[in-house]
Amino acid sequence: MSQLSYLALGDSYTIGEGVETRGRWPMQLAQGLRDAGIAITDPRVIATTGWTTDELSAAMDAAEPRDDHGLVSLLIGVNNQYRGRDVDDYAREFAVLLERAIGFAGRRADRVFVLAIPDWGVTPFAFASGRDRQAIADDLDAYNAAAGELCGAHGVAFVNITGISRDGGGEPAMLADDGLHPSAAQ
Measured between alpha carbons, how far is 92 from 71 in angstroms, rounded to an integer? Predict the structure, then answer.
């Protein structure tokens, strides 16, 4: 039986900044699918801490991933928001990334899913930064709404994890040691 190949695209949330390899969410997902009887590889990850949508796109050009992945995930945008980029620019660049993700899944939108951007405004890092936490939440809601709308238009599953990040994402057990990134438990 052949295994599905899995491509995970994103930023620090995708690589699991501050989390040991097996605890990173794409690895947990692959293991959970294997436990459920689905033959899938560990993910090929194209992600780096700090990447914005345009930086991920450039990295995808350089990495030249195949277009026959059985599963593709996309989680990107927090650094666009952090850097104060306009939501319309994000939506335009995200739309291109989404099209590319679908292409990497052999043009099968049903094999692609997008995760919403977690709300970093609830973390100790945000408290210490002095930034307006409500403005962060409002921005991320706008970014996630744009991504969700694009996913709906393309038949791609949109997994809204923002509420989970807001409900407990500021708790020490839910954070990596940096007080910003989600822990393996989150």
Answer: 23
> Residues in the chain with pLDDT < 50?
none
Per-residue burial over 70-91, b if 16 or more Cβ lie within 10 Å, else e, is bbbbbbbbbbbbbeebebeebb
Q: For residues 163 and 141, give the distance between their C-alpha atoms in angstroms, rounded to a whole number.
A: 10
Name the token pair of 140.
Answer: 């991320």
β 71-75/44-47 pair status: unpaired
Provide the 10 A C-beta neighbour count for residue 177. Answer: 11
Nearest to 120 by CA among 159, 186, 86, 169: 169
- Alpha-carbon distance of 84 to 89, in angstroms, equals 11
Owner of token pair 């335009």: 92
Q: Which of 156, 179, 159 is nearest to 169 (CA)?
A: 179
Do residues 72 and 7 touch, judged by C-beta distance below 8 A? yes
Q: Is the pTM here over 0.85, yes or no? A: yes
